[in-house]
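dumping the sequnces here before i forget
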Amino acid sequence: MSIRLTEEKVFKDPVHRYIHVQDKLLWDLIGTSEFQRLRRVRQLGTTSFTFHGAEHSRFNHSLGVYEIMRRLITNFSDKPMWNDEDRLLALSAALLHDIGHGPFSHSFEKVFDTDHEEWTRLIILGDTEVNEVLRHVHADFPKEVAAVIEKTSANKLVTSMISSQIDADRMDYLLRDAYYTGVSYGQFDLERILRVMRPMDDQVVVKASGMHAVEDYIMSRYQMYWQVYFHPVTRSSEVILSKILKRVKALHEEGYPFKQPPHHFESIFSGAMTINDYLQLDESVMHYYFQCWQKEDDPILEDLCHRFLNRRLFAYVECHPNERLTDIMALQELFWEAGMDADYYLEIDSSSDLPYDVYRPGEEQRVPIQLLMKNGQLKELSSESDVVESISGKKRTDHKLYYPADTIASLDSSIRLKIESILKQM
Amino acid sequence: MSIRLTEEKVFKDPVHRYIHVQDKLLWDLIGTSEFQRLRRVRQLGTTSFTFHGAEHSRFNHSLGVYEIMRRLITNFSDKPMWNDEDRLLALSAALLHDIGHGPFSHSFEKVFDTDHEEWTRLIILGDTEVNEVLRHVHADFPKEVAAVIEKTSANKLVTSMISSQIDADRMDYLLRDAYYTGVSYGQFDLERILRVMRPMDDQVVVKASGMHAVEDYIMSRYQMYWQVYFHPVTRSSEVILSKILKRVKALHEEGYPFKQPPHHFESIFSGAMTINDYLQLDESVMHYYFQCWQKEDDPILEDLCHRFLNRRLFAYVECHPNERLTDIMALQELFWEAGMDADYYLEIDSSSDLPYDVYRPGEEQRVPIQLLMKNGQLKELSSESDVVESISGKKRTDHKLYYPADTIASLDSSIRLKIESILKQM
Amino acid sequence: MSIRLTEEKVFKDPVHRYIHVQDKLLWDLIGTSEFQRLRRVRQLGTTSFTFHGAEHSRFNHSLGVYEIMRRLITNFSDKPMWNDEDRLLALSAALLHDIGHGPFSHSFEKVFDTDHEEWTRLIILGDTEVNEVLRHVHADFPKEVAAVIEKTSANKLVTSMISSQIDADRMDYLLRDAYYTGVSYGQFDLERILRVMRPMDDQVVVKASGMHAVEDYIMSRYQMYWQVYFHPVTRSSEVILSKILKRVKALHEEGYPFKQPPHHFESIFSGAMTINDYLQLDESVMHYYFQCWQKEDDPILEDLCHRFLNRRLFAYVECHPNERLTDIMALQELFWEAGMDADYYLEIDSSSDLPYDVYRPGEEQRVPIQLLMKNGQLKELSSESDVVESISGKKRTDHKLYYPADTIASLDSSIRLKIESILKQM
Amino acid sequence: MSIRLTEEKVFKDPVHRYIHVQDKLLWDLIGTSEFQRLRRVRQLGTTSFTFHGAEHSRFNHSLGVYEIMRRLITNFSDKPMWNDEDRLLALSAALLHDIGHGPFSHSFEKVFDTDHEEWTRLIILGDTEVNEVLRHVHADFPKEVAAVIEKTSANKLVTSMISSQIDADRMDYLLRDAYYTGVSYGQFDLERILRVMRPMDDQVVVKASGMHAVEDYIMSRYQMYWQVYFHPVTRSSEVILSKILKRVKALHEEGYPFKQPPHHFESIFSGAMTINDYLQLDESVMHYYFQCWQKEDDPILEDLCHRFLNRRLFAYVECHPNERLTDIMALQELFWEAGMDADYYLEIDSSSDLPYDVYRPGEEQRVPIQLLMKNGQLKELSSESDVVESISGKKRTDHKLYYPADTIASLDSSIRLKIESILKQM
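..and the predicted 3d for all of it:
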């Protein structure tokens, strides 16, 4: 069933040194147009506005997840529960787990109420090159791969290797995003973690002797979330991006005469987007439209596109929406009064992270990390680690109010001072 | 004249750890739309088809060149020949030296016979945000910056710091491109080299005690050229890119009815491109067109765009054009016979590198590296270093013939075998 | 007062890249025989039995602490409370803070009830080369340096820079010990931490924007303690070392006829050790004696020395001394019965760490870390950081029982089984 | 024959991340007292006087050579010429290749006319723990291991893996010494080189596609020699060390009444050194004697030991012995006149390197590097690589004259000026 390449192919990778491809199946998947498209979707969306180094694509990351999976299962080959189809399933799911991501997923999905996981399923199961390659294994193989990525597979072991508190996906993105941003936070001892992982019934467990390496990984994750992924400057650019998409949709609905009509967006506006439409909407295409729309007559669309392309971002203050309701409503009034559309120029953005989540019945959750003790028992990580226990299950939320400080600075002093005095006291 | 920021701004940078901005002038230059545009032009064009990590932009590199210059001149502040305007001139020129680069410069300039250095001059001197910011220093400052970048400035010292055999530009790109590709070749001891550099009359010289560090830098350069910059796979994608641009131009000239007409290219076809037109033509826009053109009826344009976007590259063989003239002509014949347009599907690409160039009267050249001996004398590097001497002035050229192996494989066996037999004996 | 070197001296350093010496005072201190002696005392004692890479000396580390101090105070030069004598004081104290360390300090001090801090004071104030060099600043300068190291100085600001929860000493050893052992735990962003540190009255505070970098440092410290410094294998070698010293002392007291008498130890046995005696007792000398004593007739001394030099270490089990008193006493009985002297072959070793310590009135403590908030207020770190709060003030102790498993394995089965059955149930 | 450990043992290593031991044979060899002794012999002798980071031992390096060998032969397991005994032979020879090194080998061997390679043979074949462990494979196995290390083995393939122009020994020490010194020169892409190495008849060849990685390795080697191994400051300390040994030998021969007689050296003075005597003479023991001898009455021995321990090194000038014969003789005269024994205080030291050596009939040489071309032919590296060709076979020698500048500075001005004027014109 599995066809080996006559000669192993390698990719030079700055994070894992080399990525090794030994199976024709994987090599063919990498060559599909759907996978190559990931070169035109950045891994961290607008983060490069904050950390200029973070310009790497989802293509880059997907190869990394594949490689971690490959190294992980190298140790599994002698396990009775493990066969060659499991291997291909794990590798394919690792490579394809992000195939459904569109450009700037976060903002895109929020505005258009769509979901990259659903697109992943459609791309794997639909009339695509990926699907055709996967069917070479057997007719049901695409479904099995999709099920693993969707976490509905009966193969819980393979599923846990891609979606758990410590999976190939997370391990790659922490290391990779740290490498490209240049921050020191995302470092942990990948090689040691891979060596202490063991398949056991339905999940991968971690030998207790590796607990500190896992603690280190959990702390890396915690730091990356607050230092990189939720950075307020990045969120400012995402606010602007969301507003652009919202504005285009509104203008389209009201029949606004675009100089450059949003052809690539029409099917998503009408709720009739096909796989093919979706696959064409990459970051380059988005950027093309933003550039054209800088010359539209609509002042909001023009301004927002100009802001996005030239990094004229919104400023921000801490602002808890419930505690500050009166102030926010007052600001909205003042914005309207000053001629700034508060629907587009005032926004609360909230980011939350659950750094480590123990299972709680009834809640959607990721499989917790089980330590394999010397006596053969399993213990959940936070019961053994003080550090993890301290951050376990603690959801922390950060609320910020975004606004155009530059525009406000140019207003008449009477209204400007009113706005600034509210903002100052926040 | 120079206004300091009240608080230094820093950028996290994976290569130099941090980039420090202390002057309002530099901060404002970074914020201009022309400089922000560099985020949408990759430093290494199509290299990421070969080294997937190399997705970094010219924005990224330009900040790095600025930072190396900043560190270099920190040591110069007590030198008599050095004043604050020299400092601003050096920093501005370092930051802006690549401002005129368009998308995929190599192929773009070849097909359209244009030159990024000319565009750099126009952007700095024209009606742009960059020009306006520079004029805050004084009215002639833009001209001075442009002159340094063009190597026509009377200030030869500053010029040599950006354009010589060992300048801030080269030192940054070697380190940066090595970092992002993940190769180990581009490493050298930047800190030591900066410490042994001394301004002296018209150029920066290197204390003899640092010779080995400089040798190491020269060797890094040599290796990066042959291992990364001239990689045959990257050149294959550039061949395809050039052919796309050539085809679009030809179709446009013959009045082909495009579904997606090349609006953004029209002014360059007509030789009337303005600065504004040029600035809009970034990589995203190019990618947009390539995507649209995958659906054109012209089979050549459609095929080449499909190849470029999905990395279906041309194969290659070593082929010296003069020695293989008969073979090449025979192949051209066979290509036409098989229905493949040899103008688009058969191409010789030659890459040459001069790893280190000693001055030769009458030739365009970069200032050679002078070692400052203990006795105060200057000696040219290759006269002291065996290793540098060995590669000095030796131009090495690599010639390759590119062709679509996949298309050939699908031809009728009679003609296919003829083509393959010629290729095989090359 | 401060004499600059005509040319800066640099040391290549793997952790800080380069160490820069600009003052004659510091250069001369490095050249003293007392400071050069630190080359013959390893930074981590017996840790290289566990992490073979950790063979670096206290000389190595002391230069690193000096360099961190130098970089830290570079930012202070424009502060009103800061003058050139403060600078020399801070640099000298940083360089000399470990000058009193003897070989294998931990075991040595435990057995001989001595204290490296006391020796530091004596070396700085006594008739030494270090003292002579320091007196060139002024007659009281040695006292001032000693007071800073002893934490009795009126200059609390400088003191806090060497002895606080986040000082030059700790920052260097975490980075350096991580580098030499090869573990990934000790990484944190030194450059960022140095940039957010500010002198303020009596201590150095940290700008709140740097809180996460400091969290990362605290976690590194926590991990290094449990993963490296308290590693049970290292502690096993320290147990053996302590037993050697204890045995020699006992044999000396009872008039045992040594083949190689412990000349270098006699003054410490008699409580009359001079500075000169102390300075001669470096690790090489200790190793010399251990080697000679492998041939003594006393079977305990001979065996322990053989074990130490050839890494035949004791095995260990978890064992809380209070909870296991009966078992331990039973083991002691059995050891005596089997002819193994339990005073030398059975030992409880306990390691405790307080990863971060907030001030508690009446307790000896290190100055806690104060965050400088945007509004100018100071807040203690653990009140702002969940992660630090979680480990703050929590003393964790690890108890282990060490014993010679190899010797036990060679005993008669009757007594061996009894011993092993007690050990097994621990 | 080969017994696997029930669980793989790992060592954390800063250069190779982890060192993996899977065979009982290798684990037992590491545990022998002869191998553990290598912890007390530094890899780079006195280099830490120049690069303070380079305090690592031969133990450290030997594990690294073993690990490179292990990784290299992992790729060989499917080759017909390769069996399990070859594997054990290669691994054992890699681990033990330096087992015969004494302290400060370079100086030691020069003065006592002994040879670490001979001691390696004696230790492997003699009545040692190493020999006993090796004999568990079979009675002739020690001889086979010794033959590989001595390059007299019929198994030329395994021999070439330890002793050729590109072997496990060299690859480890370049990477390791670069890591510990902190210089950037020793970097090359080990992983890639290992992947392109292929066993072929009597030697390991390199696939032509890896030529540039090998060039990079050769250049690293070249730079490390001149920047680190032949550093003039290191050579100064070796000159002093040689003079100490020479002086002790002379004093011993003339019956000088030592306060601390050179017991550990007596057998080597008399030419009757046993393996056991040799094994006891580690660096600690040498340091012990140097320390004691600082108090001898002989002014030369006392001074030289003081210099060595406290890094009061000799100064140096470039000096070609043949060209400067008259000057050197004049200096000798003046030294005697000034009361300085020129036999101990004036020394020419010459270092030569042959960075890459092609085979020349009749000369002792290391196997050159063969490239395996695509067509199956072998080509010697320097015939394909310009860079290697340029340094190939070129012996470069550096001559320096060492002298005690500090002592000279304290002489009467008449003689001092004469000496200094000769030195100055060199």
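Confidence is low (pLDDT under 50) at residues 359-363 of chain C.
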